[in-house]
Amino acid sequence: QVQLVESGGGLVQAGGSLRLSCATSRSIFSIYTMHWYRQVPGKQRELVATITSGGSTNYADSVKGRFTISRDNAKNTVYLQMNSLKLEDTAVYYCNARRVVVPSLEYWGQGTQVTVSS
């Protein structure tokens, strides 16, 4: 079992920055791909950013150049640095861990609210 705990959400003005953190309960990055998703009410959960076990990253087109996913292996923590925030970035952000070796396992955090105001 793996617990994921997000933090760092809050209220920020458009153009501002926030850094989200996702602390994992144990060292998993060598065999898990980590993702950040977001969801607004009434819409499907959207994949925002990914960091693979090998350290490769990928981003949704809507956040490329503004968001950066990273991880600190010593702290068992994944980060999402969000810059130049827009109103449309308002959502609940979720951390996700997906095991890349058998057995396939997946874990979600509880989510953290990000609200961008004008």
Write the layout of secondary structure elements.
Layout: E1 4-7, E2 10-13, E3 18-24, E4 32-39, E5 46-51, E6 57-59, E7 67-72, E8 77-82, E9 91-99, E10 106-108, E11 112-117
Parallel strand pairs: 2-11
Antiparallel strand pairs: 1-3, 3-8, 4-5, 4-9, 5-6, 7-8, 9-10, 9-11
Structure commentary:
There is one protein chain. This protein has 118 residues and is an all-beta fold. Helix content is 0%, strand content 53%. It has no helices and eleven strands. Strands 2, 4, 5, 6, 9, 10 and 11 form a seven-stranded mixed sheet that branches. The protein has a four-stranded antiparallel sheet with strand order 1-3-8-7, with no helix packed on it. The radius of gyration is 14 Å and the shape is globular.
Give the beta-strand count: 11
Radius of gyration: 14 Å
The number of helices is 0
Helix fraction by DSSP (H/I, runs of at least 4): under 10%
How many angstroms separate the termini?
40 Å
* General shape: globular
Which structural class matches the secondary elements? Answer: mainly beta
Secondary-structure element order, as H and E?
EEEEEEEEEEE
Largest sheet entry: 7 strands, mixed
* Multimerization state: single chain
Strand content: over 45%
Q: Which regions have little confidence, pLDDT < 50, spanning 5+ residues?
A: none
What is the average per-residue confidence, as pLDDT, rounded to a whole number?
96
Q: What key phrases describe this protein's structure?
A:
mainly beta; 7-stranded mixed β-sheet; globular; 118 residues; 11 strands; 4-stranded antiparallel β-sheet
